[in-house]
């Protein structure tokens, strides 16, 4: 009897911890993020994590926002982001004056521009960069997220039309094999989100909803294809689809509990329980909890 009572108390403690951070936990998370900031204003991907990175800077900025914190040295962060913009190509590099632009960095750069409230019109060359350089689905997925953040439409290039056709063909295969939902949820959610952001109709949306909801793992998270271990990035990707489809995870408290288990003693979050903290994983945790708690707030207002 005592053993069962202790187990119940432990489970309740996990739920409480996962629902929202305490003031002390919040302070610790901001402390972790603060330590990732370099003298240049840019953020490291992890600690130790080499030099600062534009992608890490963007994820850190978003983590501050969703956890309700203030970004330190914001002027320096803005200078770092501005310095990563390559006006000649319209793309962004990972560090000011270093390296070559790519689609992933350019998407991160546009999102950072929005977070810092920089003048978007100064960076619209990124649209031309996307039009010339997007070749893969993952490039399109992030580029569409970036254009949505600046409230602009993705240029309708011939390559974009081919990628949309490929997405539809893949989702048709998913519809036929929906019994293997756990192996398909991450990919399906990512593709559904991309179509919705492009203003495209999702084929057989009811079937896609079922695949996405059925793919939740027992621990509450979502996993990559061909794995049985949940991770925060996959959970974030699928939960974004769930939000855009106006759904609710089947196991809400289990998802909160999974996020809480990814939290480390340094205040940051790892991609999986026990994994080292990183800026990216901390962002994934912040936005997943934000979505779950926002849904709770909406329900409580009814």
Helix amount, in percent?
A: 55-70%
Largest sheet: 2 strands, antiparallel
Q: Mean of residue pLDDT?
A: 89
Task: Report how far the terminal alpha carbons are from each other.
Answer: 38 Å
- Per the principal axes of the C-alpha atoms, what is the gross shape? globular
Radius of gyration using CA atoms only: 20 Å
- Quantity of strands, as a count: 4
Instruction: Tell me the series of helices and strands, N- to C-terminal.
Output: HHHHEEHHHHHHEEHHH
Oligomer: single chain
Strand order of the largest sheet: 1-2
Describe it for me?
The protein is an all-alpha fold and 302 residues long. Helix content is 61%, strand content 3%. It contains 13 helices and four strands. A hairpin with a 6-residue loop joins strand 3 and strand 4. Helix 9 (181-197) crosses helix 11 and helix 12 runs antiparallel to helix 13. The longest helix has 23 residues, at 279-301. The radius of gyration is 20 Å and the shape is globular.
Keywords:
3% strand, 302 residues, mainly alpha, two-stranded antiparallel ribbon, disordered C terminus
In short:
By secondary structure, the protein is mainly alpha-helical. 61% of the residues lie in helices and 3% in strands.
Task: Explain the layout of strands and helices.
Layout: H1 2-19, H2 23-36, H3 54-67, H4 74-83, E1 85-86, E2 91-92, H5 103-115, H6 125-133, H7 137-149, H8 158-176, H9 181-197, H10 205-214, E3 222-223, E4 230-231, H11 232-244, H12 252-261, H13 279-301
């Amino acid at each position: 009897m005592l053993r069962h009572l202790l187990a119940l108390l432990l489970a309740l403690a996990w739920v409480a911890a996962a629902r929202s951070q305490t003031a002390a936990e919040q302070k610790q998370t901001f402390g972790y993020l603060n330590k990732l900031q370099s003298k240049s204003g840019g953020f490291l991907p992890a600690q130790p994590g080499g030099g600062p990175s534009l992608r890490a800077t963007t994820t850190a900025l978003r983590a501050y926002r969703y956890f309700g914190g203030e970004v330190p040295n914001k002027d320096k962060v803005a200078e770092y982001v501005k310095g990563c913009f390559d006006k000649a190509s319209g793309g962004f590099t990972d560090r000011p004056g270093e390296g070559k632009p790519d689609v992933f960095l350019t998407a991160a750069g546009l999102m950072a521009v929005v977070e810092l409230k920089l003048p978007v019109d100064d960076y619209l060359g990124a649209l031309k960069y996307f039009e010339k350089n997007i070749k893969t689905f993952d490039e399109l997925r992030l580029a569409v997220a970036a254009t949505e953040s600046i409230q602009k439409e993705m240029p309708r290039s011939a390559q974009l039309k081919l990628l949309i056709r490929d997405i539809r063909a893949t989702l048709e295969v998913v519809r036929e094999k929906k019994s293997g939902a756990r192996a398909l949820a991450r990919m399906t959610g990512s593709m559904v989100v991309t179509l919705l952001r492009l203003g495209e109709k999702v084929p057989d949306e009811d079937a896609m909803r079922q695949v996405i909801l059925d793919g939740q793992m027992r621990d509450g998270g979502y996993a990559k294809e061909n794995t049985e271990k949940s991770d925060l990035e996959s959970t974030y990707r699928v939960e974004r689809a769930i939000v855009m489809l106006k759904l609710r995870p089947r196991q809400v408290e289990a998802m909160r509990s999974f996020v809480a288990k990814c939290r480390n003693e340094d205040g940051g979050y790892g991609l999986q329980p026990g994994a080292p903290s990183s800026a990216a994983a901390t962002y994934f945790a912040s936005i997943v909890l934000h979505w779950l708690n926002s849904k709770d707030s909406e329900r409580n207002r009814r």
